[in-house]
Design a protein that fits this description.
Length: 63
Amino acid sequence: MEDTELLPAPDGAGAPADDGPRWLNDDEFRAWIGYRRMRALLDLQLARQLQPTRGCRSPTTTY
């Protein structure tokens, strides 16, 4: 491997243009919403399991 292969392309060639945020397409949006729902359910279940009667704080409590 030559040393030049480790260098970035000149003038940012090949790099994506920075035209602002790239919004999610429909499939990505559905996946994101599914993840957020799963995470909310996971947080609720963890909160139920880590009740103060068991000596643990809520998973969203900061120490």
